[in-house]
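This part of the workshop introduces the protein records we will be handling. A record pairs a protein's sequence with a compact description of its fold. Backbone structure tokens are a discrete shorthand for how the chain folds in space. The question running through the whole workshop is how a given chain folds. The record below serves as our worked example for the rest of this section.
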Amino acid sequence: MKNSEHFRYRMWKQSDAWSLYRLSQDKGLAFSCDWKPHGSPMQSREMIVGKLQNSLCRMILNMEGELVGSVEIRLPDREITLWLASRCAGKEACREILQSAVSFAAEEMNLDALWIGVDENSQSLRKLLEACGFQAHHWTLREDADKQEFRRTILFKKSWTDAEVSCSINKPQVG
């Protein structure tokens, strides 16, 4: 991903464990990711090695070099995941990061669309996605991190090759 005006992107390294551990203590971040705060930097290192250290996942740094989040494009589903520290989670920051990810997906990966899921109760994120050109497509039920309950998630699609993206939000898909 190309750096944007306020953010830099780079691949995760195991040496980022302490920064991720500190960031995991942000209650707003932990809630949005369905995480519990990490118990130790070792647990953060395990997450980096097991989930974040792949070719399509980038850590997000502010211009001071501090870790503020992560963005990933998951294949083959073409789903984008994004999480930000609560102090950086404003509309403009999210819009800037989403625009960088969409540009990367279109120009570098030659994808024709991206998907992103949002909790059905998150009106502000839904409005942000719509402002960035994503359209509600369908909803699905997803298990939370503790696998104790299902959460209804609306999947949004942004396509830059289709003339029209359908909106069939009434048909559930369990995933």
